[in-house]
Amino acid sequence: MQGAFVPEVIVICGWGTGTSSLLKARLSLQFPEIKIKAVIGKNQLDFYDLEQVDLIISTIPLKEKKIKSVIVNPLLDLKDMQKIKDNIYQISYEKECRYLMRRLQDKKQEERETLAGFIGQDLLFFEEAAGKGWRQIIKKMGKHLECRGCISEQYTEDAIASVDEWGPYMVFIPGIAFVHAGPEHVRIPGAALTVLDQEIPFGEEGNTYVKCIVMFAVEDEGNRLLTDLVSILERGDNVRKLLEAEAADDLQMIY
């Protein structure tokens, strides 16, 4: 998980120093993607600066706070770990969205480019949803990005694994999933886009539905590819136009 999006956590434990140390060690082992800022007692919480805290993990009930919190058993059972995991990925994607919005606001000049031109005609796909699942769609886009020289085959496998794990948090614009993996198997930045004729379930649980899947590959978080793509979609009613598109020519009207 990239540094800018790492959830910052404090741990509250009412079971003594030994249990606190054990809980911190287990959290660090099970969730290396979080940063544990401190382990404190409940009586210290009111005096702790929560400005840079994303999540509170506590072994005891707390008064309602503006910060997300999870109550867990000091020994961390499977249900506890799932609750923590869900919060971690939600926080990470919220941070990523805020980062993208800041980048958009900081842009002094916007280059008006059509969505079709931005992605490339040969990486735009329009499919019937019947008989297709999100894995099949991602594999097809991944194969085309691989042929373009953007990614290796492993990137597609990693992207599918990411959807299995993070699924719903990739849908930060309703109806559109933004699929990606880590930068290790990216050769050059690129993106592919598939619009379906009807919505399909997205992710392992199938509770989230999408009509469009965007697969993108960037080498680092400073790359503007995703920022510029979201910039196009944020203008006017471009999201509606994208979700209603039936052919590449329709995307020429999105800029």
Measured by DSSP, the beta-strand proportion falls in 15-25%
What is the annotated CATH architecture of the largest domain?
A: 3-Layer(aba) Sandwich
Helix content: 25-40%
Q: Any idea of the CATH topology of the largest domain? A: Mannitol-specific EII, Chain A
Order of helices and strands: EHEEEHHEHHEEEHHH
Q: Uncertain regions: pLDDT < 50 for 5+ in a row?
A: none
Distance between the termini: 31 Å
Number of strands: 8
Q: Indicate the radius of gyration in whole angstroms.
A: 21 Å
Mean pLDDT: 87
Number of domains: 2
- Widest β-sheet, arrangement of strands: 2-1-3-4
Structural class, from helix and strand content?
Answer: alpha/beta
Shape: elongated
CATH class of the largest domain: Alpha Beta
Largest sheet: 4 strands, parallel
